[in-house]
Amino acid sequence: MVAVVHGRVKNQIAVAPCEQPAEVQGGGGDVIGHRSVVPNLTAESRHVGVHSRDVAMIKSSASSFERLLLSAEIACCTGEKHKVLCSVQSPHFRMLRSRRRPTLSDLRSATGLVIGLYVTMHLANHSLGLISVRAQEAARPWVMALWHSPPGQVLLYGSLGVHATVALLALIRRRHYHMPAWEAIQILLGLTIPYLLLVHIVNTRGTRILTGIDIDYTYEIANLWVDPWTRFKQIALVLLVWGHFAVGLHFWWRLHGWYRRAFPAILVALVLVPTMALLGFAEVGMTMTARARSDPEWMRAMKERGVPADSRRATLRTTLKDWAGPSWFGVVGVVFCIVQIRNWRERHSRFKVTYPDDLVIEAPIGMSVLEVSRMARRAHMSVCGGRARCTTCRVQIVSSVGKLPAPRELEATALRRIGAPNDVRLACQLRPEVDLTVRPLLHPSLVAATHHAVGQELGEEREVTILFVDIRGSMLLAETRLPYDVVFLLNSLFAGLAEAVEKSGGYYSNFTGDGLMALFGLGTARAEGARAALRCALTMFEALDSLNKRLVGELKTPFAIGVGIHTGEAIVGRMGPPKTPILSAVGDSVNTTARLESTTKELGVQLVVLAETLRAAGILMSMPLQAVSLRGRASSMAVAALDEPSLRRILI
Q1: Could you say which of 177, 259, 485, 493 is the most buried, measured as most Cβ atoms within 10 Å of its Cβ?
Q2: Segment 595-644, tens digit of pLDDT
Q3: Helices then strands (H, E): number in the chain?
Q4: Has residue 382 been placed in a domain?
Q5: Closest among 72, 85, 65, 78 to 574, alpha carbons compared
Q6: Residue 213 sits in which domain range?
Q7: Does 385 fall in a domain?
Q8: Residues in contact with 218: Cβ distance below 8 Å, sequence separation at least 6, in sequence order
Q9: Phi, psi torsion values for 100, nearest 5 degrees
């Protein structure tokens, strides 16, 4: 069979055996301690089913362009010892978008976005220093209008407080400190920023409150730039805050298709905003330094301007400047000590986790199963980093000596969306208090097997037009002709079909021996992709007629083909062996197209096109549509049954 797809692609996966363990770690997900040249699905995975979105997320975790694919159940059946074949059927899946109460993770993301918006606007204002300090001052009232208003101040300082509190709560919840390097860096950045930020707030907002003066850019930059140590701390603050914001955005948005498509523009912005701001800061700062050297009195007056006339307020300002930053480290230190004391007191309150290879790990109560795996340096898939934004860390509960805590809303929502049975839990959310035996349901070697070079397409939900072609009578041809003759004849036909795809602007995707699949609309609008697929079908029929004329004395029965065309949602990405991946598609739309092609035999026509494709192409049919029932579909679908002349008429 031959299939052609315009736009998006879903579902066909072949899985072969794994080799010996070693170490693998990929992308933002967490995989420690296993290597495999080819993906391997463990037997336990087959008991409860593996989803193609897991494969997609695993692919994404090995690249900076992490991407969550749509849901696709993989029904696995084992063959011989050396391979496992998986066929995929996938309904649309939108991860965790059902209504639920906000979690700490949601609060951290929302407040981080508010803080990031303020920082972006503030840095953009600083970048005007490349023009002049007057340009900065001219834009300042407009940039800061929101944040200087009472609601804006509540929003900004409330977000700062909540964000810092959530960070401390995350520290309190930790029973261990085994984590991926990227997560450790983000936590360290998050704990360092408040030290520098509190000092900056005292110097700006605190001075405004205590003295009543307007903190303009002349005062601010003169005090921040002239002193080398203060200048260094300010530059470090900008880099730390912006780096923390950029990392947070990336790991929040990385699973969304629009983020990958917009990533080049976002990357440019992430580089330009702090760069331009620091250049503007330096330009005005050097001007202030030159003036301070030529007029020391001006600099002295500028410093005295920020000192309150009231001696008590002046003392308070000095105290806050000296102790605001260190006090944060004091709070962090106290929290850390309290956590360690708690962990020490609970050292006897422990539970055991038994893994499939009879490995038993003992851990203190309060740790999640995923944290236990990390602590033991055991391979355990977790593409989202343990935030319940995926289900790749899920485990099957084989047994437990007591009752396990019920899934919280976030975990329950994720498990409902994949239809998980009652004995399946998310390892990142399950914090048991009793001994239990678990069976991880995704083999971590999948990361190694789906690793591709950065920048390759690794999966994206798109609307595409898919074309399947099947060569009629190929089995009879193989039975009645010598093998070399069959190869010659089929290659002659495939050359014409492939040329038709290329001329129509399609992308040859898949070859199945007696057919092919092509994709249209990958780089064009939906309407153009649909029309291109129809033009491709017509060109194929014309190429087939020409070939049959040339082979009239060679073939007893002329070549014939059946074509199915459908426009719909699919997952398009690079699939196949790591060394020779191809751009292909998986999903329900691909399955539908294949069944449309099969329908050409029942209807006795060359082409069956779904009505949706004709509408997408802007074609108004004069002939009536037919309702057909497709295997696996509860309801019938409206299609147009066409031959070469009728197809030519509707395309004119």
Answers
A1: 493
A2: 898 888 888 899 999 888 888 888 876 667 888 888 777 778 888 888 88
A3: 22, 18
A4: no
A5: 65
A6: 104-341
A7: no
A8: 133, 137, 288, 302
A9: -160, 165
